[in-house]
Specification:
121 residues, alpha+beta, six-stranded antiparallel sheet, 4 helices, 6 strands
């Protein structure tokens, strides 16, 4: 899976926006203003995604292509290499998981106003 396909997939999720708040080399994807992914545009080699802490460790133990994210809280954020053998289906699943982790922490009023964000599994 390449970085453009990942971008398109992220933008297909409800209420997702993108920006370059960290500079031209990184594209941030957000749901309701909260970051759930960071795409490396400079080299296109990885995507950074949020994860449940236990699942983050499990993924790192299982896949050499998944490591603690550089410059992010390593308890919650993984860096996923796109140059390894991780299947596209798993990358999409990790994107949905990241999205869901962020949505879980959104205020109840936002969840009530935008119930479509709760349907992503």
């Amino acid at each position: 899976m390449n970085i453009e396909t990942i971008r398109e997939y992220c933008l297909s999720l409800p209420l997702v926006t993108e920006d370059m708040a960290f500079g031209e080399e990184h594209l941030l994807v957000r749901v309701c203003g909260k970051i759930f992914g960071c795409l490396d545009l400079f080299q296109g080699e990885f995507v950074t995604l949020k994860s449940d802490p236990d699942y983050a460790v499990e993924l790192r133990d299982r896949y050499a292509e998944i490591i603690p994210a550089w410059h992010w809280n390593k308890k919650y954020w993984n860096q996923v290499s796109l140059e390894g053998s991780i299947p596209d289906a798993l990358i999409k699943s990790l994107i949905r998981h990241s999205y869901g982790e962020v949505v879980k922490k959104l205020p109840a009023r936002i969840k009530k106003e935008f119930p479509q964000i709760l349907d992503i599994q």
